[in-house]
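Progress note, sequence design subtask.
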């Protein structure tokens, strides 16, 4: 009996040891898989999406994909030559041309591959369009008009053309839904032209190609958040609307994630969003202060009169605001305000707290 008990004890000990070893192996494998996934995900992104720098890159004749990847990594154009090699193989890309290129750390792998195949970056860009964060479609049109042969009127006409927009919807089915053709919307493509610096190597690029390049960038950015959007049941339209509100309300000292939480909390309890930038968008105005008379404007964008989100974005949002729209902080805040002098944003959960902060940081500083 003693031997039997000893063997049972020994068997339990062995099973316990085997179980611990198995769990440890699973954890290690899981950690390796996760770290590998994060590494690949990071390596597929631009080195610096906001960079305006262009670097001289020489691709010698007869260079293999591996050597091209190493050159690009050494020059700081991509994050990993190893990932570049397998990205090229996975997409069956061939026909790279030797030569001297000027490449930017802001370029995606897809853009780099495209230009290395066509040789288009062997000279300086003819046109450079710098699109800031938080600007509206009419302002983007002004920027395009300033640097190209196109007039503002024809640019806006093209951007608002239903036939053209419908073609774009077919080209970007995951990005542009039928929601953008809602008759309440001012401009179907408002909020969809991503803030970045765009280079064109032709003296007279077509207007379509300019718009498509900006939409390509937005499409790439949105794919980064596709999994998160699916989990939260957010469409690109709703996500970009929220991101645009955050972009317009945020100061340099603001916590965008907390501002995002305020908007989501208000939606949850059925409160109007009451954000001033939507009023100004309704009025087609830019001004520092919104008056009580302004709040009376009858518009589907006026979030003082309507509940829920406005029908479309009110500007183009940058990456920080998009990320905040996807991942709001977990708070009970329902109010926020920016101090007049410092620009610091203060958050509160009740109207009484909000009014106290308003009296302290707004009224007292007039």
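Output:
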């Amino acid at each position: 009996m003693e031997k039997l008990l000893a063997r049972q004890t020994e068997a339990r000990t062995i099973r316990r040891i085997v179980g611990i070893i198995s769990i440890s192996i699973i954890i290690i494998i899981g950690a390796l898989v996760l770290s590998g996934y994060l590494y690949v995900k990071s390596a597929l992104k631009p080195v610096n999406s906001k960079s305006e720098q262009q670097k001289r890159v020489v691709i010698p004749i007869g260079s293999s994909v591996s050597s091209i990847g190493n050159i690009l990594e050494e020059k700081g154009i991509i994050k990993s030559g190893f990932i570049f090699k397998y990205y090229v193989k996975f997409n069956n890309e061939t026909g790279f041309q030797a030569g001297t290129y000027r490449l930017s750390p802001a370029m995606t792998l897809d853009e780099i591959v495209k230009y290395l195949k066509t040789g288009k970056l062997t000279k300086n860009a003819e046109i450079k369009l710098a699109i800031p964060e938080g600007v509206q479609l009419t302002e983007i049109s002004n920027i395009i008009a300033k640097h190209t042969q196109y007039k503002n009127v024809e640019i806006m006409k093209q951007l608002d053309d239903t036939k053209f927009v419908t073609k774009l919807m077919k080209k970007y089915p995951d990005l542009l839904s039928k929601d953008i053709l809602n008759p309440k919307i001012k401009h179907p493509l408002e909020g969809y032209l991503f803030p970045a610096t765009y280079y064109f190597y032709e003296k007279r690029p077509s207007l379509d190609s300019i718009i498509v390049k900006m939409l390509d960038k937005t499409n790439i950015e949105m794919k980064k958040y596709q999994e998160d959007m699916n989990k939260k049941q957010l469409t690109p339209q709703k996500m970009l609307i929220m991101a645009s509100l955050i972009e317009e309300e945020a100061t340099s000292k603001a916590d965008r994630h907390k501002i995002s939480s305020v908007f989501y909390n208000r939606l949850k309890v059925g409160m109007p969003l009451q954000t001033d930038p939507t009023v100004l968008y309704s009025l087609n105005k830019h001004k520092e202060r919104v008056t009580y008379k302004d709040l009376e404007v009858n518009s589907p964008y006026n979030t003082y009169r309507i509940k829920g989100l406005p029908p479309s974005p009110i500007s183009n949002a940058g990456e920080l605001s998009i990320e905040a729209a996807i991942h709001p902080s977990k708070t009970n805040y329902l109010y926020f305000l920016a101090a007049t002098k410092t620009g610091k944003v203060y958050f509160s959960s009740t109207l009484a707290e909000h009014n106290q902060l308003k009296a302290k940081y707004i009224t007292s500083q007039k």
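Residues 2-43 form the longest helix (42 residues). Work on this subtask will continue into the next period as scheduled.
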